[in-house]
Amino acid sequence: MDVLDELYQTIECRKCEPMSGSYTNYLFEQGLDKICKKVGEECAETIIAAKNGDPAPLVGEVSDVLYHLLVLLSERGVPWSAVRDELELRSKKIGNKKERRDVDRNT
Question: Mean pLDDT per 10-residue run, the chain (107 residues)?
């Protein structure tokens, strides 16, 4: 997850210190509707790539989705760490049960 942490920090930096020609800044300038539209477009492209069978385009499209989701989180003022923490909690769930278990990540 380090790369996602770093990417989110870069997005936050662009938000606070705009850089000329930055696609991230373009998205922030266009606003929430544009960012949401891009998330939707990238999700649709991911579905198509998944159906085509070649893993390379799928990897690219999933990367695009993750990037645009991080921009959306930043736009809405939600830290990436909140999602990371939620995923951590969910990884400790047992099936559909509400109880959690300790996970040994070294095995």
Answer: 93 96 97 98 98 95 98 98 93 72 58
